[in-house]
Write a structure and sequence with these properties.
The protein is mainly α. Helix content is 61%, strand content 5%. A hairpin with a 2-residue loop joins strand 4 and strand 5.
């Protein structure tokens, strides 16, 4: 095995697959638990009347947390306002735009996968381009991309990893990665995803945005393999809560081919996250039912479709109410919004000339 030198391009990155001897009893036991939790999550998604609409709220949390891993921070309040489309593009700060682009990339990749039914390099490039709002593709051979310690770490600016580079090098390694994902061998798709996630981060095929691109590709591959119907596995929450371990175990594979700690870490992340997301879906569905039963008794125009819309995002625009109810009169629409706030189905908050209508029950669930 070649000696790893963090200051030199890691062109000796081994091709996939790794030896099947890494699959010991401990890993397979943990794999069984994670697979069961993931299957339960997938079944739970199908309980949702309109999965895409409700899943939108969970993907928003994933987008926010995944960008936070890259030290791009936003508040829930800022994000919910932006998503409600109440804020003009010029008033949205750069961090919020990064989060929204992540969510757009997630759904763009999902829609492409469903349409083309092919998980390949083109999806990875498309996701990256949406995340970074760029037409760039794979890093050019002469790119001097390196990974350095952050400003908050010891020895800030020190090089900790130099990814592969050179004519055709990145392309060859990506070809090997996607061939591995499509191949038939003794690695279950869930284990393949974990192995491929390391490999993608090690290849570091783009000048920036690799972490976020890789986390989206995890979800898309699970969908491609029919382990998930929608992109709802909220892995970024676990990763940011165990961020040091995440990077430590990644580097362990690079420096020592220590696959086991990395695989156990990711299997625990999948198991924990699937259970957490299951609980969120249960809470949202329970609250949706309670809100509908209450509101339908108070307001004769309150429908199931409207109820679902109020749980599609935390901050609601009157325009959504208008589209669903068919009400065009501003006076009537204003009356509807007042009734929703009077009965505490929504709350209102005015900031300058802007009025935000908030589903506080949904906000509390998402932030819990």
């Amino acid at each position: 095995m070649a000696i790893f030198d963090r200051n030199s391009p890691y062109n000796a990155l081994p091709d996939l697959p790794p030896s099947e001897t890494i699959l010991d009893t401990e890993i397979l036991t943990k794999w069984g638990l994670a697979s069961r939790s993931l299957a339960e999550l997938n079944r739970n998604i199908l309980r949702i009347p309109n999965p895409t609409m409700l899943v939108n709220t969970i993907s928003l949390q994933e987008a926010q947390t995944s960008t936070a891993i890259e030290n791009i921070f936003t508040t829930e309040d800022e994000l919910y306002k932006a998503v409600s489309d109440s804020m003009k593009e010029d008033n949205i700060n750069p961090s919020i735009k990064e989060v929204l682009r992540y969510r757009e990339a997630l759904w763009g990749g999902y829609n492409t996968l469903i349409k083309n039914k092919s998980f390949d390099q083109s999806i990875a490039i498309s996701v990256f381009q949406q995340i970074k709002n760029t037409n760039q593709g794979i890093r050019p051979p002469q790119s001097q991309t390196v990974i350095k310690r952050g400003e908050s770490e010891l020895k800030p600016g020190e090089i900790i990893y130099t990814p592969p580079r050179g004519l055709g090098v990145i392309e060859q390694k990506l070809n090997n990665l996607f061939a591995f994902l499509k191949s038939k061998n003794n690695f279950d798709p869930l284990l393949k995803m974990i192995i491929a996630h390391y490999q993608f981060e090690a290849i570091h095929p783009f000048t920036d945005g690799n972490g976020r691109t890789g986390r989206i590709l995890n979800l898309l591959y699970l969908i491609d393999q029919n382990l998930l119907s929608h992109p709802v596995l909220y892995l970024s929450k676990y990763i940011i809560n165990h961020k040091e371990d995440y990077y430590y175990f990644l580097s362990g594979v690079t420096q020592r081919q220590a696959w086991k700690p990395w695989m156990l870490y990711m299997l625990e992340a999948i198991d924990t996250t699937a259970q957490h997301t299951n609980n969120k879906i249960d809470e949202i569905l329970q609250q949706m039912g309670a809100t509908y039963n209450f509101a339908n008794q108070k307001l004769k125009w309150y429908t199931l479709e409207l109820n679902q819309a109020l749980f599609s995002q935390p901050y609601i625009k009157p325009k959504i109410i208008s589209e669903i109810t068919g009400v065009k009169s501003r006076t009537t629409l204003t009356d509807y919004m007042q009734k929703l706030t009077e009965h505490k189905i929504l709350s209102s908050r005015q900031e300058g000339r802007e009025v935000f209508y908030i589903n506080d029950d949904l906000v509390n669930i998402l932030q819990g």
